[in-house]
Amino acid sequence: EKPVYRAYSVASPAWDEELEFFSIKVPDGPLTSELQKIQVGDTVIMRQKSTGTLVVDALTPAKRLFMISTGTGIAPFASLLRDPDTYEKFDQLILTHTCRDNAELIYGQELVAALES
Question: What domains, with CATH codes, occur in the chain?
Fold first, then answer.
């Protein structure tokens, strides 16, 4: 069977030993329906390092970092908010997160609660 490739943003900080992702279940989706079946020991093909502009190393220090997300788009911001290096680069971090359904807000609420503790 041919592998299915998708770009997912890592929600865990770069230093964490465990990888965390935030996605929605797409009924009969070619990947999300399979991701639900993953077991310990299964093989998942991934790149060795996160790349792109939403990683701490790519951010230019400034007074404020505005993060505006919808739905699962909060994942890369969750990674940034959990990384102490982000707080070295910015005086203020401002996150705005919206979703279609209240049930989708739970991840953002859990993230805020974890950061406040």
Answer: 32-116 (3.40.50.80)
